[in-house]
Design goal:
The complex is a heterodimer of chains A (766) and B (287). By secondary structure, chain A is mainly β. With 287 residues, chain B is mainly beta. Chain B is globular, with a radius of gyration of 22 Å. The two termini of chain B are 39 Å apart. The chains are: A mainly beta (766), B mainly beta (287).
């Protein structure tokens, strides 16, 4: 056993007067000294176990005895076995070595917490390698595209980003980057998300049964944890792809104490277009996107760590025009900026604390400059919109014993909404004008607290009761809310369980979005007295089972969800006619939403071939007083059947093949079925007859993607080449429909976006 | 905002040109049906428009139907058969409906039969409180406007729909406005819903209460001593929805990028509306 103990531990012993001792500590990667989230700790003699939290921390109480046998395990790492004195409480720093277990070692603990043991319903965890195994367009691994392969998650129409979870709208998903929200998660109109997989460590999706610490969104939480960076050596990588060029560098600032990671990514083709257009001498134009993830963490002691994270990302389009005496320049940019500071501290007695101070903002801006020399004339126009938050939260965990962990916390958010400010400056000869138009700025305050427990009531029954309390203040109007939540799990056998959950949630911000697509010009607006916060509740239940010693697992879940105070554009309103200053009057309010469905997920987690099969049946409706003549209608992203098959296969060492097939029944769409010419006393006009809103279904969506990855060790690193084909059989999938007048009358045309697209990327890790 | 709209339009164009192929698909099946449009009012002549709808992909167009049998009934007793007028393309009756009665309409054409029924709503209970010329700030500009204060006593227990129209009798013109954000919350709640020089609003803001409605009319060609007719309408639900549909349709520019509006419908065996409104007219002299 000692052969596989490639782990180090520091011991601090504390005299305990009870019959139990507490084993607590943090689990790290031995090579990089990054914390490991979700590592399993198991004490063999007592049968007690624990799992590390988002900071790699765990706490476990076991009966006092002469010797204890502790196993520590994590997917992709060699399992560690420790024989320790069991007389005193211990605090451990454990390091696991990456790699596979030696064959002669028989370990009876799981690498990952089995699906049936998790108490939460609708929770799915992914790690960076799983994201990279999903074939995607342009061979660019993408988190959102990988998440869209999961049951209950829809991807909207082709070419757009965002996601729709269990019949929820695009704005009802909470994207947390190290506990801080990002408000717009797309680059290039949704071809790719803002999350650079080089910087990602661990991702957890919650579709139901949100733990009480999450709030202010109705449909899902995507909790993304970024990597800390190598604490021992400098490493890096660069990738040249069709869609982006990436560079990653990480290493120790102070060995074993302080590390950094820097990941940058850029869409490169504006360099080419600028070069070509500049050579014409008349100006230049180009589009790019870029993002930067940076993180520094410092370990003061085994009990204290601080983290400073920075994300900056933009999409930018600019065009300039020059001719003698005249200069014009237009720049459009949109993106997120996030800075967070985090301090995590573990106390002696099983108490863990995590404090976060953060700033996050999304903004969309346009600047236009025109200068003429003769006669002298100058114009500057700027338009800005966005949302900006200052946030603080303090989360606490207390591991009372192996059966009970209490979690609690408080938080405050100061939102600032800028729905549209236009600066106009003009200098015409000696005349100057400087005006600000539409300086509408709204503030709101969100104070919240939560309390929840993880309770193992019997060897089979575990519950997670929780409550979240919000006090949301906008203008002079306050909206207090109370959100009870509970997850219950009952083990029906060694490797099977049933679970049920209930949650209430509120959302204090609304997204004014064009057709629900999720575009950069969408506006986040606060809930107000006239447009109150959205609310929802969901009950979800399922059966979960691991098979073949954990090589496979499957889950079958069902849910029912209701949403209230939904908003939508008033009939006939388009995003061309939208005006932000009276937005409350231009949206339909007090809408009702209802969703229900069944989801199935089968995963193979070990072996040369891994993969998943996901199927969901779902129904989602909306109901507004003045839409569709007051009758319920299918939600725009109501997809009845979804099927996703993903397989990754190691052909041989250094060669991996992956394939993904996606099928989705058609989204509903409103089409007129007839028309009539009308003459009233004043006008004659044609009326199109829509019998029902969303009365027609698009053709089914399906496509096949494949990817071949070649990995080769080089003297100073590893070279990775990805060859991919998107939409292998060139399916023309519908994006939207339009009417066209022809000689034979009106025809309906279907527009498609992506045909078969081959791609290649080159990566070098050092 | 103009610049922003241009940018939105650019995004829209980018989205359009990104398409690579068009594919023809079959339309959902649809059979022609009778279309009926009529909003009746007490003490006013009844006029009804009738036409036949066609499937969307039918190359033929039908402008109107002039040989239908259109019968008006009051409390299920026939009161008149309407006659077609070529100039207005409407069927007309000399019969004038009465408040509090229920009216039925039958339309027979070829093998199609459509029917509708409506009650005449009670005239609104409202009184004029004041008429004042004021300077009003709206959308960061100062307007000189006529402030009209009306007390509306809303009937509790049901949803009520209203319209407001002011006519300058002396100058034979309607008062209109360019103000969009200064008006009363009850009016703004419907997004400053105006059509044919009428304001439309519902009772969501003041359901079942006595409510002082404050509205503004700018660009007013108004002089001291002018006679004004202030008309407060009560509308049945379908009449209100039809007005809104018409207003939205007048903004209709493009099929794509716009949420479709749905025509209200209370016609059995066909499509369209047969509805009613009533009016309270307050005549006054601008002081």
């Amino acid at each position: 056993m000692k052969k596989i103990l490639s782990l180090f531990f520091l011991l601090f012993s504390f005299i305990s007067v009870s019959q139990e001792i507490r084993i607590s500590g943090t689990v790290y990667d031995k090579e990089t000294r990054e914390k490991l989230i979700g590592a399993q700790i198991y004490e063999f003699y007592s049968g007690k176990g624990a799992v590390t939290n988002e900071f790699g921390y765990f706490s476990l109480k076991i009966p006092r005895r002469d010797t204890i046998k502790l196993g520590v395990s994590y997917l992709g790492y060699r399992t560690g076995i420790l024989y320790l004195s069991g007389h005193y409480s211990l605090e451990l720093t454990i390091e696991l070595t990456p790699g596979e277990d030696l064959e002669q070692v028989t370990i009876s603990i799981n690498k990952q917490k089995p699906v049936e043991k998790d108490v939460e319903v609708g929770k799915i965890t992914m790690k960076a390698p799983q994201i990279e195994n999903v074939p995607v367009i342009f061979s660019e691994p993408d988190l959102i595209k990988a998440i869209q392969k999961l049951p209950g998650v829809q991807g909207g129409i082709e070419g757009t980003g965002g996601m729709f979870v269990r019949g929820g709208s695009i704005d009802q998903n909470l994207f947390l980057l190290d506990d801080v929200p990002l408000y717009y998660v797309n680059h290039l109109g949704g071809f790719i998300s803002v999350f650079n997989t080089d910087a990602i460590s661990n991702v957890t999706l919650y579709k139901a049964g949100f733990p009480a610490r999450y709030g202010n969104r109705l449909s899902s939480v995507l909790d993304i944890r970024t990597r800390d960076g190598h604490k021992k050596e400098y490493h890096g990588s660069f990738m040249l792809g069709i869609l982006s060029w990436k560079f990653n560098l990480e290493g120790p600032l102070v060995k074993d104490k302080t590390s950094f990671i820097l990941s940058v990514r850029r869409f490169p083709y504006d360099l080419l277009t600028r070069l070509l257009t500049i050579s014409s001498g008349e100006g230049s134009m180009g589009y790019t996107f870029y993002d930067l993830n940076a993180k520094i963490n410092h370990q003061f002691s085994d009990r204290d760590q601080i983290y400073l994270s920075w994300y900056y990302g933009d999409d930018a389009y600019s065009v300039s025009y020059n001719e003698p005496g005249i200069k014009e320049k237009t720049r459009i940019a949109w993106g997120n900026h996030l800075i967070s500071f985090k301090w995590a501290h573990s106390f002696y007695n099983g108490i863990f604390m995590n404090n976060t101070l953060a700033y996050t903002r999304y903004r969309f801006g346009i600047t236009y400059k025109e200068e003429e020399q003769n006669p002298s004339y100058k114009t500057h126009i700027g338009y800005y919109s966005g949302i900006m938050d200052y946030r603080f939260r303090s989360d606490w965990e207390y591991h009372i014993n192996n059966q009970v962990t209490i979690k609690g916390g408080i938080g405050y958010v100061n939102h600032t909404f800028k729905p549209g400010i236009t600066n106009f400056y003009e200098k015409d000869g000696g005349t100057e004008r400087d005006t600000v138009i539409g300086k509408y700025i709204f503030h709101s305050h969100d104070l919240h607290g939560f309390l929840s427990g993880d309770m193992q009531l019997t060897s089979r029954l575990a519950i997670q009761p929780g409550v979240r309390i919000n006090y949301y203040l906008t203008g002079k109007k306050a909206f207090p809310s109370f959100e009870p939540r509970i997850n219950v799990r009952y083990l029906t056998g060694e490797q099977a369980s049933v679970k049920i959950s209930y949650m209430r949630v509120n959302q204090n911000i609304h997204l004014l979005t064009s057709g629900g697509l999720g575009t950069p010009v969408d506006l986040w607006m606060p809930a107000t007295a006239m447009v109150p916060p959205s609310a929802g509740w969901q009950v979800s239940a399922g059966y979960y089972r691991s098979l073949m010693d954990g090589s496979y697992d499957f889950s079958l879940e069902t849910y029912y969800k209701e949403l209230t105070n939904q908003i939508d554009y008033k009939p006939g309103t388009s995003f061309f006619s939208f005006s932000f200053n009276n937005w409350e009057y231009l949206v339909e309010k007090n809408g009702f939403g209802q969703s229900y469905g069944v989801e199935f997920l089968l995963r193979k987690k070990r072996g040369r071939a891994t993969g998943s099969l996901a199927y969901s049946w779902a129904k989602s409706i909306r109901h507004f007083r003045f839409i569709n003549n007051g009758k319920p209608y299918p939600f725009r992203y109501d997809r009845r059947h979804s099927l996703d098959l993903t397989i990754a296969y190691q052909v041989k060492k250094g060669m991996d093949f992956s394939v993904a097939w996606t099928f989705g029944s058609g989204y509903p769409f409103s089409l007129p079925v007839g028309r009539v010419d009308v003459s009233d006393q004043r006008y004659a006009y044609t009326v199109y007859i829509y019998k029902e809103k969303n009365n027609f279904r698009m053709r089914p969506y399906h496509r096949l993607d494949v990817n071949l990855r070649f990995t080769k060790k080089k003297t100073k690193g590893t070279r990775i080449i990805n060859l991919g084909i998107y939409n292998l059989y060139n399916r023309q999938n519908p994006v939207f429909y339009d009417l066209a007048w022809t000689e034979d009358g009106i025809k309906i045309l279907q527009y498609s976006l992506f045909p078969i697209i081959p791609s290649i990327s080159y990566m070098y890790k050092f | 905002m103009t610049l922003l709209r241009k940018i939105k339009f650019l995004f829209f164009i980018f989205f359009l040109i990104s398409c690579v192929k068009t594919v023809k698909i079959d339309l959902p099946p649809y059979e022609s049906e009778l279309f009926v449009l009529g909003i009746i009012q007490p003490d006013s002549l009844v006029h009804i428009f009738v036409n036949k709808t066609v499937p969307l992909d039918d190359p033929q167009s039908v402008e109107y139907v002039d040989n239908a049998l259109v019968i008006l009934e009051e409390n299920n007793t026939e009161v008149d058969t309407l006659t077609f007028d070529m100039r207005t393309r409407n069927y007309w009756s000399d019969y004038r409906p009465v408040e509090g009665k229920t009216y039925q309409l039958q339309v027979l054409f070829q093998d199609m039969r459509a029917t509708g029924q409506t009650d005449i709503p009670a005239a609104p209970d409202a009184e004029l409180r004041s008429l004042t010329i004021k300077n009003v700030m709206s959308e960061e500009a100062l307007y000189e406007a006529l402030e009209v204060k009306l007390l509306i006593k809303d009937e509790p227990g049901k949803e009520n729909f209203y319209a407001l129209k002011i006519h300058n009798i002396t100058r034979n013109e309607n008062l209109i406005t360019e103000l969009t954000v200064a008006n009363d919350p009850a009016i703004r709640n419907e997004g400053d819903f105006r059509y044919d020089d009428e304001y439309f609003f519902n009772d969501v803001v003041f359901d079942g209460q006595s409510y002082e409605l404050v509205s503004y009319f700018s660009n007013v060609n108004l002089h001291h001593g002018d006679s004004l007719s202030i008309q407060v309408f009560s509308l049945n639900r379908e009449a209100y929805l039809w007005k809104r549909f018409r207003k939205n349709r007048s903004n209709y520019n493009d099929f794509l990028g716009q949420e479709p509006d749905f025509m209200p419908d209370n016609i059995n065996g066909g499509i369209g509306i047969f509805s009613a409104k009533n009016v309270l007219e307050i005549k006054t002299v601008f002081p």
